[in-house]
Automatic annotation (TrEMBL):
It holds the Pfam family Fer4_8. GO terms for molecular function: 2 iron, 2 sulfur cluster binding; 3 iron, 4 sulfur cluster binding; 4 iron, 4 sulfur cluster binding; electron transfer activity; metal ion binding; succinate dehydrogenase (quinone) activity. It comes from the Bacteria. Its EC number is 1.3.5.1. The keyword Metal-binding applies. This is Fumarate reductase iron-sulfur subunit. It comes from Agrococcus jejuensis. Its cofactor is [4Fe-4S] cluster; [3Fe-4S] cluster; [2Fe-2S] cluster. Pathway: Carbohydrate metabolism; tricarboxylic acid cycle. Keywords: 2Fe-2S, 3Fe-4S, 4Fe-4S, Iron, Iron-sulfur, Metal-binding, Oxidoreductase, Tricarboxylic acid cycle.
Length: 261
C-alpha cells in the first residue's frame, strides 16, 4: 500500500471519481528508557532502553504493552481502564507525572528517548509499580464519605450553587499523580498530601455533610494542610484538571475563618 491512498466513489454512471486523498499514518521507531527494578534480582533500579514501532496517535501505555507482549514479558506496570478513568497508571514520564493512557506519542520529541519511571515518594515494589497503601491510608484518614444524621422523607436537596461549591473536587480518580509530584511529600511521606486534601474538600464544602469540622481538625495536624508550600506541582500533574492548589487554599481558609459555605 502506498503512503497516499486514493478513495474512489462511484457516480450514477458507474464511473470512478477521485473525491479525496487520505494521508496514511506513518509509523516510526521510538526509544523508551524505562527504569526497571526487580527486588529479587537487583540491588538498585537500572535504566533499560527499548525500541518500539509506534504510530503518533498511540499512547505511552501502548508502547509499554508492546514491550511487554513482544520484547520482555517481565516488565511490570499497573493499568486497567486504559481510558483515563481508573487512575491506576500514573507514572513519571520525562520527569512529569502523567497517566500513561493519556500521554500521546505525538506530544513527545521522539528524536530523544522518552524516560519512564515509577511515581516518586511511595515504596517501589517492581519496575513501574509502587506500594499505594500509604497513599490510601491518608485518603481513608480524612473520612471520605458523606456523614449526615436524620432520616429525610425525600432526597437531601441542594441548590445549584451549593453543588457547584465542591464540583471540581468530585472529579478525583485517586491516581496519586498530585501527591507524588509534591516535594513536601517526597521528603518523608508523612504529609497527608494533595489527594487526601482534595477528597476532604469534596465533603467539607458539601452542604449536606455534618462532619466538616472533624475533617478540618484532622487536617490541622502538623502533617496536614499547613505543610503545603504552594508549589503548584499538584495542579500541573492532575490529569483531571482539578485546581488542586486552590482546593488546598480553600481548606486552609476554612480552618482560619471557621466558614465552610
Ligand atoms: S486530585 Fe487529580 S492528580 Fe490528585 S489523585 Fe485526584 S485525579 Fe489524581
Ligand atoms: S489505565 Fe485507567 S486511568 Fe489509565
Amino acid at each position: 500500500m502506498t503512503d497516499t491512498q486514493t478513495l474512489e466513489a462511484t457516480t450514477s454512471d458507474d464511473q470512478a471519481t477521485e473525491v479525496e486523498a487520505i494521508e496514511e499514518p506513518k509509523s516510526f521507531t521510538v526509544t523508551l528508557n524505562v527504569r526497571r527494578y526487580d527486588p529479587e534480582a537487583d540491588d538498585e533500579p537500572k535504566w533499560v532502553d527499548y525500541d518500539v514501532e509506534m504510530y503518533p496517535t498511540e499512547r505511552i501505555l501502548d508502547a509499554l504493552h508492546r514491550i511487554k507482549w513482544e520484547q520482555d514479558s517481565t516488565l511490570a506496570f499497573r493499568r486497567s481502564c486504559a481510558h483515563g478513568v481508573c487512575g491506576s497508571d500514573a507514572m513519571r514520564i520525562n520527569g512529569r507525572n502523567r497517566l500513561a493512557c493519556k500521554a500521546l506519542i505525538k506530544d513527545f520529541d521522539i528524536s530523544k528517548p522518552i524516560y519512564v519511571e515509577a511515581i516518586k515518594g511511595l515504596p517501589l515494589e517492581k519496575d513501574l509499580i509502587v506500594n499505594m497503601e500509604p497513599f490510601f491510608d491518608s485518603f481513608r484518614e480524612i473520612q471520605p464519605f458523606l456523614q449526615a444524621t436524620g432520616k429525610p422523607e425525600k432526597e437531601r436537596h441542594q441548590t445549584i450553587a451549593q453543588r457547584e461549591r465542591f464540583d471540581d473536587t468530585t472529579k478525583c480518580i485517586l491516581c496519586a499523580a498530585c501527591t507524588t509530584s509534591c516535594p513536601v511529600f517526597w521528603t518523608d511521606g508523612q504529609y497527608f498530601g494533595p489527594a487526601a486534601i482534595v477528597n476532604a474538600h469534596r465533603f467539607i464544602f458539601d452542604s449536606r455533610d455534618e462532619a466538616s469540622q472533624v475533617r478540618l481538625d484532622i487536617l490541622n495536624d502538623k502533617e496536614g494542610v499547613w505543610r503545603c508550600r504552594t508549589t503548584f506541582n499538584c495542579t500541573d500533574a492532575c490529569p483531571r484538571g482539578i485546581e488542586v492548589t486552590k482546593a488546598i487554599a480553600e481548606v486552609k481558609a476554612a480552618m482560619t475563618s471557621g466558614r465552610v459555605s
